[in-house]
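[audit] Reproducing an earlier prediction to check determinism. Same input, same settings, fresh worker. If the tokens differ from the archived copy the diff job will pick it up downstream; this log only records the rerun itself.
[audit] input (361 residues):
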Amino acid sequence: MSQQSKKATHRKPLIWWIDDDFDHESSDRRTLLEILNSTGRVQIVDIHPVDLGEKLSSNITPIPDLFLVDFKLITGQHPDKHIKFPFMALPAGGMIRDKFPERPIYLVSAVIGEEQAEKDADFFDRVLTLQKLTAEGADILSHDAEDYTAIRRVKNRLDIKPILRLLAVPSASTDSIKRVLPEPMRKGMGQAIQKGMNDIKLTYSKASGLYFAQWVRRELLRLPGPLYDDLYSATLLGMKVKYFKEKFTLKTNVEGCLYRGVFHRTTSRRWWQAALLEFISNIAAKEGKTVTDSWKLAPEIFKVPEEELSKCVVCDLPWPETVGEDLHNRDRREPAHWRCSLDDPRRQPQVHFETTRILLD
């Protein structure tokens, strides 16, 4: 198929936005909806909560690729029908999930932060603050919708290879991904359907694609393990994170270690840990060296200035092996030695992922 034909058949993601604040042409939500539609990246249709049941009971073609549900669907009244709607976001989301179990549902919130909302709204596939939707909405919605579509295409496969392709796993990281994959997924998403996924959250018992997507977003991309963020990667290589981001990644050919799988376009960048170590090992081998402690060897190989070497925030000595969180401020994370940190007692360890550490005072 020619590139021109591909463009001609490409359809913008169709999104339903369920909200009670589209009543007036001057409303901020309506203005935002019009701005997002004007980008040409998405097609968003506003649905009033009172109309949702009727819409879902009809023959819907095409099926929306993604749904947005407002957090505060407080009891109100339809401006035209004078009908009250006595439900909030969760029941509205439940109605959608009953009809379309394989379609993602995002919660939109203007009153609570994204991280807190995701703790309180585990049912939803993602939480977007109104601020983020305003700033990056077209990119997030279009890219995520495309990735969910790619997942649905292979959700019935009894083979792990489609999963490895969705994650764009390099050969060095294949074994680590096979270890961390949830057991029902280790022979493909179709295997999870056959098993009935009785041990999985009820929300996803009939939707292996959504379960896989949630695992990617909430575990693989968040927890240190096969994938590292910039801070963990810099610490692994023995250098300060600023130097890693502004100098090391620009002057070395390390881009091949970047995560390029589903949802990489709508999350902060991640690096394949095993690929980084392989990258260092290959260069070390050419110099007749072997990798023991990567945080010591990498600065030597790449001639990292002494003032740019990573140091433990607790004892101020070099060669920290991990990253720790401040017990009183979880947004503060710093390089630390194992001896200068403890396992986080507030978090349940995830099998085959690294334990989160707490900095010692």
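[audit] rerun output stored. Observation attached for the diff report: The chain has three domains: 3-144, 161-220, 227-359.
[audit] end
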